[in-house]
Amino acid sequence: MPKRFKLTRRFPVAMTEDGYRKLRSFASEAGLDEGEALSFLFENFDAVTDDEQLAHRLRQFNATLDARKR
C-alpha cells in the first residue's frame, strides 16, 4: 500500500535565493509543489546524492556559511 501523503509538520526554513530558485525549478520540472519536492528529496536522500560529492560540497558550504549569514 502506498504511503499516504500527509503534511505532518511545518517548520521555518532559511534558504539562499539560489537554493530556493533551484528547488522551484526542480519542483516545476517534476510537476510537484515545493513542499512535495522537499519531501521527495529527503525521503530519497541516499538515492539522489553521491557520498563523495556531498561531503565535498558540504565542506565548501560550511566554509562560506558565516560570510553568507551577514
Give a summary of the structure in a few sentences.
This protein is an all-alpha fold. The chain is 67% helix and 0% strand. It is built from 4 helices and no strands.
What report would you give on this structure?
- It comes from Shimia sagamensis.
- This protein is mainly alpha-helical and 70 residues long.
- Helices cover 67% and strands 0% of the residues.
- The chain has helices at 17-30, 34-43, 45-48, 51-69.
- The longest helix is centred in the last third of the chain and has 19 residues, at 51-69.
- The N and C termini lie far apart (47 Å).
- The mean pLDDT is 87.
| Tally of helical segments | 4
Major sheet characteristics: none
Percentage of residues assigned to helices: 55-70%
Q: Which of globular, elongated, flat, extended, rod-shaped describes the shape?
A: globular
Number of strands: 0
SSE arrangement, N to C: HHHH
Q: Please give the radius of gyration in angstroms.
A: 14 Å
Mean pLDDT: 87
Structural class by SSE content: mainly alpha
Strand-residue proportion: under 5%
Point out poorly predicted stretches: none
Quaternary organisation of the protein chains: single chain
How far apart the termini lie comes to 47 Å
Organism: Shimia sagamensis
Protein name: CopG family transcriptional regulator
List the topology elements:
Elements: H1 17-30, H2 34-43, H3 45-48, H4 51-69
